[in-house]
Every structure is written in structure tokens, then in C-alpha cells.
Task: structure prediction
Amino acid sequence: MNQSNTKKHSNLLIDLQLFLAVGALFGGSFLIIDPSGELMDMPLSLIEHSWFSNYLIPGLILVTIFGVMPLIIAWGLYKQWAWSSAEKCNLFADMHWSWTFTLYSGISLILWITVQVLIIDRFVVIHFIYMALAIVILVVALLPGVQKMYKKEF
Result:
């Protein structure tokens, strides 16, 4: 794969993280502002079989794990800056932490959507969109050129 395509794929990975972040920051913020779900037309009956009595905790999860964290990951992918705390959670010591955390975000998103579908007992369009997003994040991150770009030089 040539350098131009690798850079495009890296930029795509950054854009995918930003897309995830923006959606989660908006959706999560609305759920925090109105934990009843009415602001987003999500009745509490959707989560009556879950651990939550309202949407506050899911909103906080969206904002932090799928909002703030992907922003940090995107910045890490762009700048490839060292972050010792993230390195402690990096399962791939030969890869930059932001690349590894990109995998974590894709896998976490698949788990999050799967749990949502199980709790509300239905699969709606937004689930399809975010499941597809998670898969695309993983596929792009695993492209050989992208992996090479984020491989640490020792």
C-alpha cells in the first residue's frame, strides 16, 4: 500500500473517532440534561428491564467512553504523543497507544450496541449505523498500512 493511501486511511480513522465522539457527546448530553429521555423521545419503558431507573448513567457513559475518549484517541492518532497512563492499558506494546485504544473503542461500541439491543429487545436503524461504524473502525485500524503507521520504533 502506498504512503498516500496509508495517510488517507489514518485520516479516515481519525474522522471515524470524531464522528463517534460528536454523536455520543450530543446524545449523552441530552440524556444527562433530561434523564427521563423525553428530550430524545426515548420513553423510560425502553430501559425498564435494565439496571437503570433513568438515562443519567447511560448518558454519562456515552459522554465519557464514547464522547471524550474518542476525542482523545483522535488527537493521539493525529499527534502520536506519548501518554504513560494509556501505555499501562496498551495490550500491544509494539503499537502506539492510540491505535490500541482505537481497537478498544470499536470493540466497546459493539458491546454497547449489543447490550442496548438485548435490553430494549429490538434493533433499530441507529443500532445498525453504530454497529457498522464500530466494524469500519476495526477494519480500518487493522489495515496493514495503518498498523505500520502506528507501530512504535524501538
Summary: The chain has one domain: 3-149. Residues 3-149 form one domain. Residues 110 and 131 are 6 Å apart (CA to CA). The helical segments are 3-33, 56-79, 84-87, 97-120, 125-141, 144-149.
